[in-house]
Specification:
588 residues; mainly alpha; two-stranded antiparallel sheet; 24 helices; globular; disordered C terminus; transport; transmembrane helix; transmembrane; Na/Glc_symporter_sf; symport
């Protein structure tokens, strides 16, 4: 059986499973559409949360960025994992005890203001649309390769699939679909990693193989990798970058995680307050299975790519383009891998032509520039092909990559549709709307969000993980401070919270748009996105904590200068925090 047919069979079977589950668990009421009728077991919710969380950024793009940069991009792992600890300890149980469906609903009630709620809706939509761009980008990459179409066509196919099961099932359908997707994606991620770790180190456990010995050279794997990348003018794989940026970026991902609306709403689906905390704990367990494997996948993918381009070693001639391996031919079709023979010798020169200290070496070897451009988002998906693994493994990782992208996209789209139908239409524009009409509005809003995300995903502001990191910065600067102050401070009032969110959103968006284009439209940026132009050297992806600090400061200063919240609101804050009654969540 050829690879294309195998891809269609395995990916098609997984899609049939997802759509079947969505039909079986179809939401018939708004309670089922928004919160799965609050009946999800915490272990299943932890698994669904992990699938919701381990998006295209985690599955497809994160290991690619780690492969390209090395140690410096381990911040993705530290920030995302640390964020779940914050979420479990500081937010999830308290928000579940409050007993409502959405984040803007909590903010509107806690800050006794429709203006605060509307501001939260705007923030949620901006965050979720930015995030879903990254998911659709990743799904487009996966579809483009395994259906052998260009990336734009792959993106439209991904949109159609998400539309079929997310619009139909709501939170109830999405929850059980995500459980299935988690099982698919974790198997798809670990099996190739085990094969490749055995090939390179003889150790079947990738976590240990990363720090093991490279079988062919008898050197430690990371030492061998440092050697080959520095031979080609790249920074050492294990080298550290700017500690300030690493700290800010890690913090941005941590507090951004704790403020992501599509993750928070998962904790509204469990029966009890204690289940919310257990759900977060189980989610960390399920997430750890992939996150412990990702650094090994990234490192081994980088070594495998260089080995296929320089089969005799980095000091020898590169492979002839006409003799390039099949995996390169396959990925060239997508446009995500490109070759340009700059010196006309017919060989593929892959090196860092931007390294000033490597210029003399490149000149001596007759190189006139890097000739191979590899999109970071393809590395994980291409890894089994590079390692020449069996066809079923290649098809399995295709199904896993698509499961990761589509599961998170569905969660994000639900957060957007809930904000529009429940917070904007039902509680702001048309309070007397019927349940049937509200459910229809939610589905129309979700369909519109899919269309917008697809159009923006055709020209994304970065690789999947980089685009997602921007969403984390926005969540860190807007939603997280409002939730923290809403739960742990009786003194923050509606004016302070609303102005804080506006300041965090506006300042962070302006910083992002300055370097990435207005509303992420390519070519509209005011400054080139290079380190020399950054304020204090802070890149757009690490600006979230600065926005959060401005949010906190604005809210506190304004609240101290204006009237304290009413007594009943202060009592509400106290009731949320006190453990009494934690067995049963209550609505306020």
């Amino acid at each position: 059986m050829d690879q294309y047919t195998l891809n269609l069979l395995i990916v098609g079977a997984s899609f049939a499973l997802y759509v079947g589950i969505a039909i079986w668990a179809r939401a018939g009421t708004t309670a089922e559409f928004y919160a799965a009728n609050r009946g999800v077991n915490p272990v299943l919710n932890g698994m669904a949360t992990a699938a919701d969380w381990m998006s295209a950024a985690s599955f497809i793009s994160m290991a690619g960025l780690i492969a390209t940069v090395g140690y410096g991009n381990s911040t993705y792992l530290m920030g995302w994992t640390g964020g779940y600890v914050l979420l479990a300890l500081l937010l999830a149980p308290y928000l579940r005890k409050f007993g409502k469906y959405t984040v803007p609903q909590f903010i509107g009630d806690r800050f006794y203001s429709q203006g605060a709620r509307l501001t939260a809706v705007v923030c949620l939509i901006v965050i979720s649309v930015t995030y879903v761009i990254g998911q659709m980008t990743g799904a487009g990459v996966a579809f483009s390769r395994f259906l052998e179409v260009n990336v734009s066509t792959g993106l439209w196919i991904a949109s159609a699939v998400v539309f079929c099961y997310a619009v139909l099932g709501g939170m109830k359908g999405i929850t059980y679909t995500q459980v299935a997707q988690y099982i698919v994606l974790i198997i798809a991620y670990t099996i190739p990693a085990i094969f490749i770790s055995l090939q390179l180190t003889g150790n079947p456990i990738p976590w240990f193989g990363l720090f093991g010995t490279h079988t062919e050279s008898a050197l430690p794997l990371l030492q061998k990798l440092d050697q080959v990348v520095t031979d080609l003018g790249f920074n050492a794989y294990t080298a550290q970058g700017s500690m300030l940026n690493m700290t800010l970026f890690t913090l941005s991902l941590m507090i951004g995680t704790a403020g992501l609306p599509h993750v928070i709403i998962r904790f509204f689906t469990v029966p009890k307050v204690s289940d919310a905390r257990w759900s977060a704990g189980w989610a960390l367990v399920f997430i750890a299975l992939l996150y412990l494997t990702a650094p090994a996948v990234g490192a081994m993918a980088r070594l495998n790519i260089i080995s296929t381009i320089y089969p005799g070693g980095t000091q020898q001639e590169a492979v002839l383009y006409d003799e390039r391996p099949d995996w390169m031919r396959n990925w060239e079709v997508t446009g995500l891998l490109q070759f340009e023979d700059k010196n006309g010798d017919g060989r593929i020169q892959y090196y860092n032509d931007g390294a000033a200290g490597f210029t003399d070496t490149a000149t001596q070897r007759g190189w006139t520039g890097n000739e191979l451009t590899i999109n970071n988002d393809i590395l994980v998906l291409a890894n089994p092909e590079i390692a020449q693994l069996p066809g079923w493994v290649i098809a399995l990782i295709a199904a896993g990559g698509l499961a990761a992208a589509l599961s998170t996209a569905a969660g994000l789209l639900l957060a957007i549709s809930s904000a529009i139908s429940h917070d904007l239409i039902k509680d702001f524009l048309k309070p007397d709307i019927s349940e049937k009409s509200e459910l229809l509005a939610a589905r129309i809003a979700m369909a519109g969000a899919i269309l917008v995300a697809t159009l923006l995903g055709l020209n994304p502001p970065g690789f999947a993980a980089q685009t997602v990191a921007l969403a984390f910065g926005l969540a860190a600067a807007t939603i997280f401070p409002a939730l923290m102050m809403g739960i742990f401070s009786k003194r923050i009032n509606s004016v302070g919270a609303t102005l804080g969110m506006i300041v965090g959103l506006v300042v962070t968006c302006l910083y992002l748009f300055t370097y990435l284009g207005w509303f992420f439209v390519a070519g509209t940026n005011m400054l080139e996105n290079v380190p020399a132009n950054y304020i204090f050297g802070i890149p757009p992806t690490a600006f979230g904590p600065i926005g959060a600090l401005l949010n906190f400061a604005t809210a506190y200063i304004v609240s101290m200068m204006t009237q304290a919240p009413p007594k009943h609101v202060q009592d509400l804050v106290e009731s949320i925090r006190v453990p009494r009654g934690a067995g049963q969540a209550t609505g306020h």
